[in-house]
Prior knowledge:
It comes from Martelella mediterranea. The protein is α/β, with parallel strands linked by helices. The chain has one domain: 3-Layer(aba) Sandwich (Rossmann fold). The chain is about 45% helix and about 10% strand. The protein is built from 6 helices and 5 strands; from the N terminus they run E-H-E-H-H-E-H-E-H-E-H. The chain has helices at about 15-25, 35-45, 55-70, 85-95, 135-150, 165-175, and strands at about 5-10, 30, 80, 115, 155. The protein has a 5-stranded parallel sheet, sandwiched between helices.
Amino acid sequence: MENFIVISGCSGGGKSTLLEELSARGFNTVEEPGRRIVREEQQTGGSVLPWLDLEGFLRRAISVARQDCDRFHGCREPVFFDRGLVDAVAGLEHITGEAHADGLNLGRCYNRLVFMAPPWPEIYEHDAQRKHGFDEAKAEYERLMMFYPRLGYQPVLLPKTGIATRADFVLERLGAGR
């Protein structure tokens, strides 16, 4: 799935804003599974929320991320994912201490380049779907920076720049300008 590109990294590091810019430029984008799950659970009064049932939340995020990949199966154009399957599995391994990545072929799900939004305290914000603090977001980032290479991915650090320049950086690295 060389055309499936993940934007991952630190919560509050500008991933969603970058995806909005790529969408505005005509690229296929997929919203973060976790944000969709939280929004749905909040609307329906559900309890599969990261601050109430983290393991259930991550298992559902894995399912949603697989559905996202299936939805774009066969698409020849680039598809940019705000997080995805690897992020959810990394979180599940962290909280359970069990190896969930083995046998899932996670190294074959996405392009080997994964763009990582670094911790950026100047833009970090809490919102209705993000209740954890900056220190937790930074710790998650550090885990992901170790987890992705373990599966054969090459993390590419996103520059702390304006959104248009950040999008240009991603597209130049992929050779996919528009």
